[in-house]
Each structure stands twice: as structure tokens, then as C-alpha cells.
Amino acid sequence: MADFEIAVIGAGVVGLAIAARLSEKHPRLVVLEKNEKYGMETSSRNSEVIHAGIYYKPGSLKASLCVEGRDELYVLCKEHDIIYKPLTKLITATIPAELEKLESIQKNAAENGVELQLLDKAATLRLEPNIKTVGALFSPLTGIISVHDLMDFFFQTILSHRGLVQHRCQVMSIQQNNGEYEMTIDDVGTQSSVSSEIVINAAGLSSDLIAQMVRIDIDKEDLRLNFVKGSYFAVTPSKANLVSRLVYPVPVNEGLGVHALMDWGGRLKFGPDVEYLEGRSLDYNVAEEKQHAFAESIRRILPAINDEDITPDMSGIRPKLQRKGQPPRDFVIVHEKDRGLSGFVNLIGIESPGLTSSPAIARYVESVLFK
Ligand SMILES: Cc1cc2nc3c(=O)[nH]c(=O)nc-3n(C[C@H](O)[C@H](O)[C@H](O)COP(=O)(O)OP(=O)(O)OC[C@H]3O[C@@H](n4cnc5c(N)ncnc54)[C@H](O)[C@@H]3O)c2cc1C
């Protein structure tokens, strides 16, 4: 018999959400995480926004799992005292030419079942008097969540179901043997092995490399990830009250545009920008040289911000399937039984809205495995 029924590779918010859900009925479950603690990569380096589900292509996994996950997160927050704020959001058009774009965003959102209100300039300025606007979309269901609180909740749920979370366990290779998977694990230089009937690859920025370990040709299948950094700048406290909700521009190509958000310390921040990295380095340094360009992007929506009002803050790296200049890609969440990999589930390209979608992704993974 294999050591475990289920092994989840990766203890980010997605792996933890999956393990929290599956461990209830399948307690012979382990989460294998290479870092010292869960949630040290992308899951703790993001905007912490509960997205409403506005921009994603209707019918895509991103659209359906975001809407489902959003509703589920609000319920979880209320029931389990997870810190959140239903802040709401504006997408502001700053020139008349962008008003048409707002209408197409509103239409797309409606197809995803998300109702947005189109506000004229006066109504927008009543909500946010300091922003630049000729009209905006108001999203009542967008909020923010403490992702650390959420991950703590999933972690405790796994333990309460008698599942295990093993830190400092890096999966180095995977062999398929007689209906189970044998994984070589590196624990700070010491090698061991662990076997499992089911393996769920939720390894974030390494998920394509994990897929490669079971001999999936990630180049042929167009599954090689691009590392796309998003940096944030923080605004000086004296200007932190210039907006009171999330404010976004009309989106640009690969991201939603540098937008205003609030952190749990009450700071106003702007970000993330979009920077395709060469290679796969986890370089989280925020370049000071970006200050002027950042301030320019911010002034597009909040003219009162001067260059010296902002300082480099934090960054995160998106695991993007989308190549630079190419159209957006959907989440890849597949039970690979058609490749002869029964019991092996790949989750690749789980960029935004992965946090919002996490409880719905967990349900989806359960359905592809057990229904
Ligand atoms: C700048 C930015 C802003 C974002 N903003 C939002 C937002 O506002 N709202 C939203 O919904 N989403 C947002 N996202 C997306 C969201 O953060 C991610 O979708 C989510 O965190 C992905 O979680 P994950 O568990 O898949 O990945 P991760 O958090 O990366 O977890 C994967 C884990 O796998 C582990 N691992 C990797 N390889 C191995 C191995 N070989 N063996 C063992 N363990 C391994 C890693 O150490 C890591 O802990 C944002 C992302 C970025 C980068």
C-alpha cells in the first residue's frame, strides 16, 4: 500500500484549500512543501483582493471559479472570523475614449453573472472626490481578505482532519509504479521517498517543472510558465486617505493596470505593474528606478501623487502561461488520466484570480478526481 492516498505538492493558498477540502473524506493525505512554512511564495505576495469576476472570458475556468470562489470566501470569512473588508471597487475611465471600454467590461462581467453599475462623472466623484474620472464602473462585490488568515484557516482544517503538512520537503522526481506515484524528496540535503495513490500538483511557479517530472512535454503542450513580476509602491501616510476603496484604471494588456489598494496596516499602495522576467529567478527586489514611471501610472487615476510621495514596497511573481503580447490563457486544471497518469492532477498557470478562486478550485479538483 502507498504511504498516502493523496499527496498535494505545494502549500500555497491553492494547495492548502485543496488539502483542507479533500482531507475531510481522505485523511491519509499529505501536503509536501519545500519552504520552511506554508504560503511563502506567490500566496503571500499579492493584492489580497477578492475579485468579483469581471474581466475573465465567459465560460472559462477563471470566470466560473472566481465567481464561485468569491461567494464561498465571503461565507468562510464570516463563519470563521477570517479578516476581510468588503471595500468595493471603481474602474475609472480617465478620458472619454475609455467610456466605450467600460461598457464592454460591464457586458463581459454581466455574462459572468457579475452586475456592475455604470456611474457618470458626478456620481463617481461623490464616491471618490480625488480621482481622475469621466465616469466609472462600480463593483459592489470586490473586497480584500487577509490571505495569511485564510491560509491559517486551511492549515488548521487539514490538521483537524488528521491530514499532514510537511515543510522542507522538496519534490525532486516522480516515478509512476503499479498505480501509485513514488516521489523523491529532498529535506535540506537529506533524500527520502514517499508514495501516494493520487498526486495533486499545486506547485505554483514550479508546477510546469513538476508536470515535466511525469514526462509531459511542457514545450510541445505549451505549458512552460513565464515569470511575470508585479511590483508595488507605498504612498506616504499623509496621502493615504485620498481614496477609500479599490480604484483601477481601464485595463491594459497583460495586467489589470496599476491600481490603488489598501493593506492591513492602513497603508495606501499602488501596483502591480507587469514585468516579464528573463528565466526563472525569484528576484523580489523592487527597483527604485521605477519610481517615476510608477508615479506617472498612478497620476493617471490619482493626480495628487508626486514622485516623492511613493516608495518601493513589495513584489510578487505571476506564474503566467500567457506569453508577452499574446491573449490571456485560462487556468489549466486537468486530471491527466488520458495521458496514462490516472490519479495525477496538474494545476498550471494559477495566476490571478487564484486566491479568490481557491475554495472553488478545491471543489473542482475533487470533482475531476472523484466524480
Ligand atoms: C502580484 C500579484 C498580485 C495578485 N493579486 C491577486 C489578487 O488580488 N487576488 C487574487 O485572487 N489573486 C491574486 N494573485 C494570484 C494569487 O496570488 C495566486 O493565484 C495564488 O497565490 C496561487 O497560489 P498557489 O498555491 O497556486 O501558488 P504558491 O503560493 O506559489 O504556492 C506554491 C507552493 O508550491 C511550493 N513548491 C514549488 N515547488 C515545489 C516542490 N518541488 N516541492 C514542494 N513544494 C514545492 C512552493 O514553495 C509554494 O509554497 C496575484 C498574484 C500576483 C503575483
Task: Report what the structure shows.
- By secondary structure, the chain is of the alpha+beta class.
- The protein folds into 3 domains: about 5-45 and about 150-225 and about 330-370, FAD/NAD(P)-binding domain (3-Layer(bba) Sandwich); about 90-140, no CATH class; about 230-320, 2-Layer Sandwich (D-Amino Acid Oxidase, Chain A, domain 2).
- It is built from 8 helices and 20 strands.
- The protein has helices at about 15-20, 60-80, 100-110, 120-125, 145-160, 205-215, 290-300, 355-370; strands at about 5-10, 30, 50, 85, 90-95, 115-120, 135-140, 145, 165, 170-175, 180-185, 190-200, 225-235, 245-250, 260, 270, 275, 310-320, 330-335, 345-350.
- The strands form 4 sheets. Strands 1, 2, 9, 10, 11, 12, 19 and 20 form an 8-stranded mixed β-sheet that branches. Strands 13, 15, 16, 17 and 18 form a 5-stranded antiparallel β-sheet that branches.
- A hairpin with a 5-residue loop joins strand 15 (about 260) and strand 16 (about 270).
- The longest helix has 20 residues, at about 60-80.
- The structure holds flavin-adenine dinucleotide (FAD).
- The site of flavin-adenine dinucleotide (FAD) has 40 residues, from helix 1, strand 10, strand 18 and helix 8.
